[in-house]
Amino acid sequence: RVASDTAARRPACLPVVVRRMWGAGPWSRGGGSQPQASSSKTCRGCGHPIRGGQTYVTLKDATVFHSECFLCRGCARPIQGSYSADDRRPGDYYHPHCWQLKVSPTCCVCGEKMLPDSRGMIQYSTTPYWGQKFCTRHTRDGTRRCFACNRVESRGAPHVTLHEESRGRGRVGTQGHAESGSGRALCQSCSLSVVMGTEEGAIIYREVRAFFARHGLALPPDLPVMLVDWIALNEARGGAGAGGGGGPPTHTMGMTFTEQRTTVRHTTTVREPPAMGALFGFQGPPAPVQTRQEVVSRRNEVSAIMVLRGMPRLLFCSVLAHECTHAFVKLSHFPDMTLQIEEGLCQLLAYLWLKDEAGPGSGAAMAGMVAEEAEERDRERVYYMNKIFEDESVVYGEGFRMAFEAYRKYGLRNVVNHLKLTGTLPL
Questions:
Q1: pLDDT tens digit string along 20-34?
Q2: Closest by Cα among 260, 224, 261, 228 to 246
Q3: What is the pTM for the complete model shown?
Q4: Which range is most confident: 66-80, 208-222, 356-370?
Q5: Is 349 in contact with 321 (CB distance < 8 Å)?
Q6: Among 67, 305, 330, 380, which is disulfide-ready with 258 (CB 3.0 to 4.6 Å)?
Q7: Are 96 and 83 in contact (CB under 8 A)?
C-alpha cells in the first residue's frame, strides 16, 4: 500500500542588502598615496576590512561580506537578490534554488530532485515501511512495485519479472517491463530467495512441521504441498472445498483442500404380519418396514495444499504456516468456527513463525549469509509481521488481533485447546 504524503519546505529567503563605502567617512588619506580603511567593518569571507568604494553585503545578523565574497555553498557563485541560511551549519549560505537542491528529497525511481511548486509545497508519494519517496507521477506512469514487499522499481535497479505459465513451471527474467497479466515483478532483494520447485516446498514443509511440533501441534509427515501459479490458484478459488487463502490481497497466495469421509450404517427392519391373519386367509396390511441410519465414523483428509510459486522464502513460509493451520484444524476435528476466528488463528501461526525466525542466525535460510544480507532478510521479516498486524480487513486483520490478544493472555496451547472444545476464543 502506497500512502501519499505532502511536505512543505519553505526556506528562509532573506534579502541581500548591498551597500557601498563612499566619501571622507570611509577614507583617510593621511600622508600616504594609498587610501586607508577607516571603517570597522570586516568581511566574514576573506577577513579583510571593507574599504572605500567597495560594495558589501549586510546580513540580518549584521554580518558583512564583500559582494564578491558572499558565495553560495552549493554552486560557489556570488549570491544576489536573496539567500537561504542553513540553521544546522551557521555560516553556510545558499541561493534559494541551490538550497532546495540540497534539502529536497530525491526521487528513488528516476533520481531527480523533487522541488517545490509555485506554492512552496513538495508533493511526493512514499512507501511507509521502506521509506521510499518518489514523484507522484510514478503512481500513474506504470512504474512497477514488488508484489511481495511493495517496493517501487528504480531505474538503476530494475525489478525482475516472474513469468506466469498456466501449464508448467514459471521462469524468472529481467527483460523489460511485463505487461499486465504476463508476470509478477520482484525487487532484486526478494528475487534472491524465491521458492520455485515442489522439492523446495517439501523441505520447507518439514521445517514448518517442526515449528508446529515445538508448539505442541501435530501435523502428518506427508501432507501434499504443491507449488502452482496465480492462474491455477484463482481458478481453484471458486470451487474450493475448505478454508484457504494466505491473506486478503487481490490474488490468492495459498489454498487448502480438505474432504470429509463419513461412514454410515443403514439398518432395515421388516416386521412380519400376525399369524392369525394368515390362518383364516385374511390378507392384512403390508408388513411395516423401519429404516435407521447411524453414522459410524467421520474422517477428515487433506487432499492438497496449494501455495503460490515464486514467492520470497519468508513470505512463502508464512503462507505455508497459514495453510498448515487450516489443515491442522480439519485433521483435528475442531468444531465449526466462524471464518474470522479460523482465519485469525491461521494468521496468528503465520505471525508466530515469522517471529520465531528472529535473529541473524535463525532458520535454515539464514545459515551462511553475510551480515548485510541477513540484516535485509530481517527487515523483510519485520515487514511481513507488520503487514499481518496492521491488516485492516475484518476477517484477517480483526481476526488476527483477536487471536493475538487471546494468545498474549493465555498462550498458544490454551487458546488451541479452548478452540477445540468450544469453537470460540477465550475471553
A1: 554 433 333 333 333
A2: 228
A3: 0.71
A4: 208-222
A5: yes
A6: 330
A7: yes
